[in-house]
Design a protein that fits this description.
There is one protein chain. This protein is mostly helical. It has seven helices and no strands. α5 packs antiparallel against α6 and α5 packs parallel to α7.
Length: 215
């Protein structure tokens, strides 16, 4: 059995690791794109001289791909360090690290539904699921549409003014990249299909944006 203060402490400690890591990932990705702005012309010229003009699209793609790993690396490292604050059900041994808030509300395991917090009134997981839908639907689910919306604005802007992003051409696909990475990661980690539409939309905008970027 766990005590409520113990779970709340572990939740705060995990959050204190993950939030800075995600912010660092975003900042590092923007920094990487800033670096690309400085070296892009030289790298493309080098590729043309050594591999021919046909190599330009491939070298551009090769420079884009690392940004995904740069964005995810801090979160991955933080996730590994946060394992020290993980919890598991004493009855079924399921990892409940990502379900701490659910446990604090229901007092029971989300898998076997047996009590794991000594005090407080137990509530069903179905009741908690309805509570979460009311609390989060208008926040996180709709917030993830901000990235596709921004991506559409960038693509339309570029369509009517092809010189608008000459100084920073990565903006054409940046919103699609962040959106597909952030929503895809959330979808994989939570298995919540409410994020599927945002992930697919962001991925489509990413592909279209990269295609326009390489033209």
């Amino acid at each position: 059995m766990y005590q409520e203060p113990e779970l709340r402490t572990k939740s705060k400690q995990r959050f204190s690791l993950m939030l800075p890591a995600m912010c660092l990932g975003v900042a590092a990705m923007f920094g990487y794109f800033g670096l690309l702005m400085l070296v892009r012309a030289d790298v493309v010229a080098w590729a043309r001289n050594n591999f021919g003009a046909d190599s330009e699209p491939w070298i551009m793609m090769a420079m884009i791909i690392p940004s995904i790993f740069i964005f995810l690396l801090p979160s991955y490292v933080a996730e590994q360090k946060a394992k020290r604050y993980s919890i598991s059900c004493p009855n079924c041994c399921k990892d409940l690290t990502l379900s701490i808030q659910r446990i604090l509300k229901t007092r029971c395991c989300s898998n076997c539904e047996k009590r794991i917090i000594e005090t407080g009134r137990m509530r069903s997981n179905d009741l908690y699921a309805r509570y979460c839908r009311r609390q989060w639907r208008n926040y996180l689910v709709y917030w993830f549409w901000a990235w596709p919306a921004g991506g559409i604005v960038m693509l339309i802007w570029h369509r009517f003014d092809s010189s608008a992003f000459n100084d920073c051409p990565q903006m054409i696909f940046l919103f699609g990249l962040i959106g597909s990475t952030a929503t895809g990661w959330t979808l994989i980690r939570t298995n919540d299909l409410r994020y599927l539409a945002q992930t697919i939309t962001s991925a489509v905008l990413l592909v279209v944006g990269i295609s326009m970027f390489l033209q």
